[in-house]
Amino acid sequence: MHRDRAGFLTGIEMRGPAWRSFSAGGDKALFRLPGGPGRPSRVVVCEAAIDALGIAAIESCRLDTLYTATAGGMGPATIAALQQLLQDLASEPAGALIAATDADIAGRRYAAKLQRMATEASVMLPLGLRIAVVGERCCCLN
Question: What is the pTM of this model?
Answer without folding.
Answer: 0.80
